[in-house]
Each structure stands twice: as structure tokens, then as C-alpha cells.
Amino acid sequence: ILNVEQSPQSLHVQEGDSTNFTCSFPSSNFYALHWYRWETAKSPEALFVMTLNGDEKKKGRISATLNTKEGYSYLYIKGSQPEDSATYLCAFKGAQKLVFGQGTRLTINP
Amino acid sequence: DTEVTQTPKHLVMGMTNKKSLKCEQHMGHRAMYWYKQKAKKPPELMFVYSYEKLSINESVPSRFSPECPNSSLLNLHLHALQPEDSALYLCASSQAWGFAEAFFGQGTRLTVV
Which residues of chain A have pLDDT under 50? Predict the structure, then answer.
């Protein structure tokens, strides 16, 4: 069984604060790590696809890092805004597998 | 056009019915996916088509039958489903299987009665 774990499960952050959360995945047979943002009643929206150890990606106030040797990725949000409220999903691609984590539900309090 | 279009949006079917879910994209993507998502759970991969060939079948019961008639279309044929198959079925597409960002459709909310 392939375990992809995200922590924390939920997070409440004050508007303007920065935050980060974690995706842990197997360190063997790594092909790619995806991050998605999923708002209620909408489709998941791709944020990043990361393939190389040490990768850092950035899109506006959101950035992500990747450590394939130890099997984790961090997603950072700088200066949280109410529109950042969503569930953030990571997905691990192995040889013939694509497995999602359970997600981190982020709520930004105004 | 960065849309993945799924029809219908909602479907209620009896356990003896046969129905189909449809998915369409015009982004030139060569990988298309079916996912099943139950309430408060992440999406679970069901099938992957790469270059119109079935690449992955995640041990899905045969009452679900995928079909990829061409590079833009993906169908999921449903027959003799069970109430526990009620879920949101998501279609997605990407440039390459697993290595490119996937674009998701809005999903079909399926209820089996």
C-alpha cells in the first residue's frame, strides 16, 4: 500500500499571516509530485508539478519545495488572503501509480 | 481552451440501468483519466489512457468500462452498479501521463438507487 500523507488535516490562519503544510510520500520509485488547490464545488486546479530533488516552484504568493531523498514536499503561502481558503492536495506519481494525499483544508480568517 | 467538459453533471440510475459518462477536451492532451471521489476523501485513480490506449486500470470492477474513441473523448460506461458506487466521478487530462499538470472537469455526481 502506497502512503501519501498530508499534515495538518486542517489549518486556520489569520489573514495576512504566512503558513505552510507538508506532503510525505515514499522516497523510492519517485517520478513526480503534484500539488492541487481544490475549492468546494469546483474542479481541482493544478499548482505545481515537481520532478527533481531540490526543486522549488513559485506561483505568486504560493511556493513549494521538494525533497525526494527523504520523501517530503512543503507548500508555502505568504500573506494569506481569504481567497486562499481551499483544500490543498498533493499527489505522488510512482512507476504505475498516482496517489493523492487526504488534503490539508485551509481556512483564512479575515 | 483549457476546459475539460463532463456530461452529465448529475445522474441518478437504478442498479439495472446502463448509462455512460462523457468527457471531452480540446487541449491536445494525450493522457486522460477517470477518478472516483467519495465525500471528504481525495480522488482515487480508476483508469488512465495514454495515446488512446488503456495504460492503467486500478483493479476497477468490470461494471465500469472505459472507452477512448479518440484523443479528445473519454467515456465511462456504467452497468449494474451498486449503491456504494454513488460518488463524484472526475475526468482529467494532461500533456503526458503523470508528468504534467492535469486539468480536471467539474465532475458527474452519480447516485445509484
Answer: none
Using alpha carbons, list the distances in angstroms from residue B98 to A24, A59, B61.
Answer: 18, 20, 23
Q: Is A39 on the interface with B (CB under 8 A)?
A: no
Of B43, B98, B107, the CB nearest to A100: B43
pLDDT at position B1 over 70: no
Record: contact B99-A51, CB cut-off 8 A: yes
Whether B40 has a pLDDT exceeding 90, the answer reads no
Of B75, B79, B65, B61, give the one whose Cα is nearest residue B32. B75
Check pLDDT > 70 for residue B93. yes
The size of the A-B interface in CB pairs under 8 A is: 48
pLDDT interval class at B36 (50, 70, 90): very high
Interface test with A, best of B4, B27, B45, B88 (most A CBs within 10 A): B45
Neighbour tally for A34: CB within 10 Å = 26
Question: With 90 as the cut, is the pLDDT of residue B2 above it?
Answer: no
Q: Is A110 on the interface with B (CB under 8 A)?
A: no
Q: Closest-CA residue in chain B for A105?
A: B40
Dihedral pair phi/psi, residue B40, rounded to 5°: 65, 20
- In contact, B47 and B58? CB cutoff 8 Å: yes
Residue B55 Cα distances to A67, B65, B93, B113, angstroms: 28, 14, 14, 31
What is the average pLDDT across B19-48?
94
